[in-house]
Amino acid sequence: MGDFFNLSQNTMSRRGVLGLTGAVIASMTLTPTVFGRTNAATKPNFIVIMVDDGGWSDWGCFGAPITKTPFIDKMCTEGVKFTDFYMGGATCSASRASLLTGCHPARVGFGTPFYVNEPYGLHPNEITIAELLKGAGYTTALTGKWHAGDRPIFNPTLHGFDYFYGITCGSTLISDGLWINNQNKGPLEPEVTTKAFTDEAITWMNANHEKPFFLWLSYCMPHVPIAPSRQFSGSSQFNMYGDVVQEIDWNVGRVMQTLKDLNIDDNTVVAICSDNGPWLRQLPDAGSSYPFQNGKGAPEEGGQRSPLVMRWPGVIPAGTVCNKTACSMDFYVTFAKLAGATIPNDRVIDGHDIFPLMTSQTGAVSPYDEIGFLYESATFKSVRKGTWKTIDVWGQRRLYDLSNGREVQLSANPQGLPGLSDTLWNLTQQKWTELQANSRPLGDANKLPKSKLLSQQNAKLINAAWDGYYYTLAGKKIRCRENSSLPRGVYFTRDTRGKFLRKIVLQ
Questions:
Q1: Residue 427: CB partners within 8 Å, gap ≥ 6?
Q2: Which residues are marked as active site?
Q3: Which residue segments constitute the domains of the chain, with CATH numbers given?
Q4: Residue 182's beta-bridge partner residues?
Q5: Alpha-helical regions (H) of 50-91
Q6: 432-486 pLDDT tens trace
Q7: How far apart are the C-alpha atoms of 430 and 52, rounded to whole Å?
Q8: Strands across the sheet containing 465-466
Q9: Tally of CA atoms within 13 A in the half-sphere of 137 that contains its CB
Q10: Alpha carbon distance 169, 176 (integer Å)
Q11: Does pTM surpass 0.85?
Q12: Inter-residue contact 166 to 149 (CB < 8 Å)
């Protein structure tokens, strides 16, 4: 199957697992087009692969001693490894909100994870990364876990995804089954999800690769219940958790091979990360955050620090390492600029452009070195600035030194650093106060219009042009919920060919 991987649909190549050694591929010179970011003919595709509850050191390229991840490791030798990358939150729903909106989760009302059939979800007025890219001519898909609201009004197809194949809630253990767009298709067994979501992603890429696309491949594993397929059961020397990690790795290899087969490898940005740290309470069915402390839901580094590998041949220099602070909410701004999309200017967007970090540009610095990076959840707040971090948990402050790839707790007032703890704590308070002052509401199905998902056949249809987040109707630019000349209700837009575009909620 081509020159990138030795794969078949049904058999993992042991030779491929054992033979991934060799010289790092020399980095290639960035083209003027890339520095100018984009033009209509060269818009890159974007793929974000997200594992669920993965550990910082689950992959070989991040130090896994036993579990074999040759395909992710090969991505790392051909791309950039981020050692100081964070998800926007330390739990599932919050981290997804940061990716989708380019914001701190609390900015858009997210905190603790959503449980089954709760009325909460991503507010319809939020402009997701999928919507942003659609406005720049992209087609979009999510295969896998959504977990940003499981009520019909929060369905991914109403948040910019042209296609959805996956589960709406937190795990297969509590899932109401497989959803395809807005239709529930019944039970979905945990052990089939990794391959099924990959199969669907590959099928979708085959059908949509002739135009720029954004694909979010969001695995349910290795979140409990840990369930490797029969093919991978017993494949690792670790345990079932290791089996699942190795199965994910093999399927990542299938995605990468598909890019080769479709001849779009050189024009596709691929990022792979975890949604948060490992769920250590589930040991032995959990990964490792070594050398950092704690895991999912915690304020220590093990809660939000995620492994990240990014690959874009010819643009991202091969075999590079970035030790600058970056965050999942930065994908929003970075991808938008590369795609030529218009970033909303009517709301606060917290993310930054990390293209200089991705491409190892001389003198590139983290945008968070100066302003600080805010960690937050329902129970803790903390800030990292440079290599210093302070944590406040229920009023108890701790100070850490994160230099040298470790998490070392210091005394409250370390010698030679007078006032450091107070300075970081004041920065935490300032950032938290600003965030609360400029926050936006969480979606609440009990307060939103009492409407159900409408198909193209039974929806009210109007002709309206969409440029990303404004609609032009009768010569007027309108925002969702801001047009009073039409009756209240749920409308679906279409172009002159009758193609379904997106909904507008008018209240």
A1: 372, 383, 385
A2: 92, 147
A3: 42-368 (3.40.720.10), 457-506 (no CATH)
A4: none
A5: 70-77
A6: 899 989 999 999 988 876 443 333 333 344 444 444 444 445 455 444 433 334 4
A7: 32
A8: 465-466, 471-473, 476-478
A9: 15
A10: 8
A11: no
A12: no
